[in-house]
Amino acid sequence: MEKKWWQKEVIYQIYPKSFYDSNNDGIGDIKGITQKLDYLESLGITMIWICPIYQSPMADNGYDISDYYQLNPEFGDMKDLDELIERAKEKGIKIVLDLVINHTSDEHPWFQDLLKNPEDSKYRDYYILKSGQDGMPPTNWRSVFGGSVWEPLKNTNEYYFHSFGVKQPDLNWENKQVRNELYKMVNYWLKKGIAGFRVDAITFIKKDQNFDNLPADGADGLVKCTKKARNQAGIEEFLHELKEETFTKYDCVTIGEAPGVPYEQYGDFIGDNGYFSMIFDFRYADLDVASGSEWFKRVEWNVLDLKKLIFKSQTEIQKVGWGANFLENHDQNRSLSKYIKEEENRNFYSATMLGALFFYLRGTPFIYQGQEIGMTNFKRKSIEEFDDISSIDQYYRSMNEGFSAEEALHFINLRSRDNSRTPFHWNDQEYGGFSKVKPWLGMNDNYRSINVEQQEQDPNSILHFYKKIIQLRQKSECLIYGEIEPILEDHPTIVAYKRKYYAEEIVCYFNFSCDEQKVVLDDKFDVLLDNYKEDKQTVSEQEYFLKPYQALILLKQGESHHE
Ligand code: GLC
Ligand code: CA
Question: Which of 2, 393, 515, 539 is exposed most, by the fewest CB atoms within 10 A?
Answer without folding.
Answer: 2
